[in-house]
Amino acid sequence: MENNDYQNWSKVELIKEIKRLKKRKKYGLVWEDKPEEVVEMCKEKLPVVKEVKNKEIITDKNKPVNLLIEGDNYHALSVLNYTHEKKIDVIYIDPPYNTGSNKWIYNNKYIDSEDEFRHSKWLSFMSKRLKLARNLLKDNGVIIVTIDDYEIHSLGLLMDEIFGEHNRMSILLIESNPRGRTSNAFFATSHEYYLFYGKNASKCKIENLPLNEEQIAVFKHKDEISYYRLLPLRKSGAASRHNDRPKQFYPIYVNKNNLELSLTKLSNDWIEILPIDESNEERVWKLGRVNCEKYIKSCDVIAEKGRAGIRLFQKDRIKLGRKPKTLWIDPKYDSSAHGTNLIAEILGKRNIFDYPKSLYAVIDSLKTIILRNKNALILDFFTGSGTTGHAVLELNKEDDGNRQFILCTNNENNNGNSYKIAEDICYPRLKKVIEGYKNLKGEWVEGLGGNLKYFKTDFVDAEPTDKNKKKLTDQAIEMLCIKEGTFEIVLERTHFKIFKNNNHYAGIILDQLVIPEFKKVIKDINGKFSIYVFSLSDETFDEEFSDIKQKIKLSPIPETILKVYRRIFK
Question: Where in the chain is the domain with CATH 3.40.50.150?
């Protein structure tokens, strides 16, 4: 039926059309959504994860356990929507840049520059994952997405749509290639973009970055309080008495014998100083009278005698750091020197991974969010070579932190070479960084320490039969351990299992008939319990546990998992 036939439409058809028009997007990014095989698969199969036991790394049982999940990140994010909803402090991702250079696979095919739906496929791919990722962030959580010129405009609009324009915190430019990309037609591109969005930007905080050696060198003076530099008290530029804060034009008196300061003339030994420049123009002081008097008393405003006479200065004290700027230029952000070459040093092989990020660019971008949060949880679901995990381990080493990372990556060959990303690049890198390694010069590099568990995505039939519900429950035990952070086995019996971490227990009951036996076992165990009981419905078993309800939290399985999957796979 053509739109211009509306005069012949029925009332039902008109109402339907009005509803359709109301839903039509009025502003924003529009693209042709493309079905994706890994997404469609979830209509028939439900994702779970299974641990690869022989890849476990434990160096300190008192430290948190980091996770590496091998598999498509859509499936990994689906699992994390159950285990980590609203638990993540920072998401850092380096997605495919969609350059058309046969480095990105969609539905098992490389997407090249000749694909007329290249941008739509990329947007479909990204939007599905970003929507799942948003659910994982805490209310004050932040997502950092790196990108270059190929998709910066599309990504910006997509992020505005998913996270809200009002939650855009900044877009940084980082010089990742100081030499410039000489293959570009017009300009040699030397930068990348880092987009920062908050789940709720009004609740987010950006940390000051630590001062570098060059900045520290500027603060040459020291008193009993701190290092400081001297800045002229007279306001710089063209600020004048007549048009810029006239109340900040007032005399300050200096004792010509000992250079003491006062806002009142105490004797003839005190001379008047006004904010008048070398051209005899009346300017203003940086401080109002009240603050100036306070700083004089604290000796943060001082006088110095030089060739040009007596000048007034304010002490600018060294702080913990400086507010990050939107342009980052530093040799340490060079992705070749501190990305490609670093991987070669760690793995002892060259040319095995294309375009890794500089370790220091990742470290510094994470520091802006979690510098002082030593227990932060960081997610990277485009992890590639594992730079984000390496960065978190470095941060923990710096300040003895307990930050934890979750990395998700596929196990495809890297750009067609023989090295698989998860098994041959990411995992070996993390293992060597944790335990220590010899670099290409044969020098030993001390390990950073840490713990790691390796998981692979797996699947259970989605049809909601009793048999499939039981199978999902049996296969979800490791998901429950991930959710609770309880990986140490306490007791394992046929129909129930108990796991723990330093201060918490998780009990998993696979047959409600063993509830009395389970209760006897945990009676003398001190500590809080999260208990999951298999039920074909959503029965909570509150009555059976009423006598110990103060020490437990009950959940029916697999219903709590299915509820999440129904929401995200609808």
Answer: 11-39+48-210+324-455
Q: How many residues belong to the chain?
A: 570
Q: Nearest 5°: CA angle at 170, between 164 and 171? A: 105
With respect to CATH, is domain 11-39+48-210+324-455 assigned 1.20.80.10?
no
Structure tokens at 515: 């509830």
d(CA 182, CA 248): 53
**Omega of the bond leading into 558 within 30 degrees of 0 (cis):** yes
Antiparallel, parallel or unpaired: β 109-112 and 101-106:
antiparallel
Neighbours of 229 (CB within 10 A): 14
In contact, 254 and 261? CB cutoff 8 Å = yes
Angular region, 186: left φ>0, alpha ψ -120 to 50, beta rest: alpha
Written as one string, the DSSP assignment of 60-95 is -TTSPEEEEEES-HHHHHHHHHHH-TT-EEEEEE--
CB 29 within 8 A of CB 156: no
Nearest residue to 142 via CA among 399, 452, 367, 360: 367
pLDDT in tens, the chain (570 residues): 444 566 788 888 888 888 887 777 667 788 888 899 999 999 999 999 999 999 999 999 889 999 999 999 999 999 999 999 999 999 999 999 998 776 778 888 878 888 888 899 999 999 999 999 999 999 999 999 999 999 999 999 999 999 999 999 999 999 999 999 888 889 999 999 999 999 999 999 999 877 777 878 888 898 988 889 999 999 887 777 877 788 899 999 999 999 999 999 999 999 999 999 888 888 999 999 999 999 999 999 999 998 888 999 999 988 767 789 999 999 999 999 999 999 999 999 888 888 899 999 999 999 999 999 999 999 999 999 999 999 999 999 999 999 999 999 999 876 556 789 999 999 999 999 999 999 999 999 999 999 999 999 999 999 999 999 999 999 999 999 999 999 999 999 999 999 999 889 999 999 999 999 999 999 989 999 999 999 998 888 999 999 999 999 999 999 999 999 999 998
Exposure of 529 by Cβ count < 10 A (0-12 exposed, 13-18 middle, 19+ buried)? buried
Instruction: Give the whole-angstrom CA distance, residue 144 versus residue 90.
Output: 8
- Contacts (Cβ under 8 Å, ≥6 apart) of 201: 166, 167, 168, 169
What global pTM score does this model have? 0.83
Q: What crossing angle do the helices spanning 152-163 and 118-134 adopt, rounded to 10°?
A: 30
Task: Please state at what angle helix 387-399 crosses helix 359-370, rounded to 10 degrees.
Answer: 60
Q: Which residues contact 473 (CB under 8 A, 6 or more apart)?
A: 510, 534, 557, 558
Amino acid at 401: G
